[in-house]
TrEMBL record:
This is Peptidoglycan bridge formation glycyltransferase FemA/FemB family protein. Pfam families: FemAB. One of its GO terms (molecular function) is aminoacyltransferase activity. GO terms for biological process: cell wall organization; peptidoglycan biosynthetic process; regulation of cell shape. Belongs to the FemABX family. Gene3D superfamilies: 3.40.630.30. The keyword Flavoprotein does not apply.
């Protein structure tokens, strides 16, 4: 299964530049520079490289020293064995989801429906019967509507969302390129759920989702998700990436609820190794980790 990786695209690199990031390429692999105090920095390779080859590591080390980077954060697509690797590599908190669910859109609509859990099919039909309408947009106004619903979601589920500016910047940059759509569900003139879907090459990605505290009994997120899947299939995309589920056997995971929701649509689980740090300066890396730990405490 060869899904497309938008985080390693030229378009994403340009978006990072528009946000003020310095970007670098090593043999077609994107890295961004993140500034730290004392003139230090670290390099970040989002959802890459595919393989942590010796050639990549050497080139990345050379770049890191030039940019005064104390480590290189990577998210390799394939497994690495840090115990046998010749360089100092540390597992760190995942930036992007290490586990996701992929739906094969080349299957017929009937096959996709039959692969769903019965409760998911029921909730899609229930939302239709309750009169949930779906709107599709890519403008900045829709980003603001999304953010208002996201504030309810984040408060309910106890997490910190991105800023309004982040969502506005995403829609302003990728909307005109036809790489992003905002799906909005409403009932009686009130918006009650919203999804942000990203499109790159053969893959549509469910990047962000939010739902209101009101009208939860009309099951709007189910219809909203199904409409995005149908539209992506109609537009010729091969895969639909649900972008993040809880690891197996993790009933207490913060994503356990949304994982049940996503798995109701079927699909095949895909697992990545997660996020690792290639350490350049052991001393400064130690200082960095201590400061990060203290910041989380206070």
């Amino acid at each position: 299964m060869q899904i497309s990786n938008f985080l390693q695209s030229e378009e994403w690199a340009e978006f990072e530049k528009s946000q003020g990031s310095e970007i670098f390429w090593i043999d077609g692999i994107l890295l961004t520079k993140n500034h730290l105090p004392k003139g230090k920095s670290y390099l970040y390779c989002p959802r890459g490289p595919e393989e942590l080859t010796e050639d990549f590591v050497k080139a990345a080390h050379k770049l890191a020293r030039k940019e005064r980077s104390i480590f290189i954060r990577v998210e390799p697509l394939n497994h690495i064995n840090i115990k046998t690797h010749k360089h100092t590599i540390k597992k760190t908190i995942n930036i992007n989801p290490a586990n996701t669910l992929i739906l094969d859109l080349t299957k017929s609509e009937e096959t996709l429906l039959s692969a769903m859990k019965q409760k998911t099919r029921y909730n899609i039909n229930l939302a239709k019967k309750k009169g949930v309408d779906v709107e599709i947009s890519s403008g900045v106004v829709s980003a603001r509507t999304f953010f208002e619903i996201m504030k309810e979601t984040s408060s309910r589920d106890n997490f910190n969302p991105h800023s309004l500016k982040h969502y506005e910047d995403l829609t302003n940059f990728f909307g005109p390129k036809k790489m992003l759509k905002v799906y909005l569900a409403k009932i009686g003139g009130k918006y009650i759920a919203a999804n942000i879907i990203f499109y790159y090459k053969n893959t549509a990605t469910y990047l962000h989702g939010a739902s209101s505290n009101e009208y939860r009994n009309v099951m709007a997120p189910y219809l909203l998700q199904w409409q995005a899947i149908l539209d992506a299939k109609k537009e010729g995309f091969k895969y639909y990436d649900f972008w993040g589920i809880a690891p197996d056997d993790s009933p207490g995971h913060p994503w356990a609820g949304v994982t049940r929701f996503k798995k109701g649509f079927g699909g095949e689980q895909m697992d990545y190794p997660g996020t690792y740090d290639l350490v350049i300066s052991k001393y400064w890396y130690f200082i960095y980790k201590v400061v990060r730990f203290l910041n989380r405490l206070f």
